[in-house]
Amino acid sequence: MRCFVAVDLDPSLRHRVEKLQNELTGLDVKLIKPENLHFTLKFLGEVDVNIRMKTETALEQLAAETSPFDITVEKIGAFPGVVWIGAPRLLNLHNTIDGGKGDFEPVPHMTIARGCDNLADFMDKNRDIVIGDMRVDCIKLKKSVLTPKGSVYSDVRIFELIG
Fold it and tell me: What is the mean pLDDT of residues 14-31?
């Protein structure tokens, strides 16, 4: 199973992200569907049942030790071929999940478009964008299934923050 750990974007903020994505319309990019918008905290890749169970146990413990908190969805950035929006307050949660390794994702991020080249004007214009505030009250272990029409995500398990 191909998995990752994530925080979903609050649905009340989706329209603001869609408005930003609309600025990319007509460029050679693939926009992320609104229902798929999430902050990646840790990409796990293909995992077997043993790794998944260990991950779930670790996330249970983390959720039990972590209280809900507020974040600001802000700042735009890019990796090669990806435009994303950040949420700096997710960094502590990201580092805890990542074990301080910094393996795949250098920052917690929400991908808004893929296949992006020559977007300097868009990046400069939106560098300091603030989408809005949201409450983080759970983290999710998600499954990703790759299809010809794009990735399909589903929740494997939801971990309510109760610390």
Answer: 92
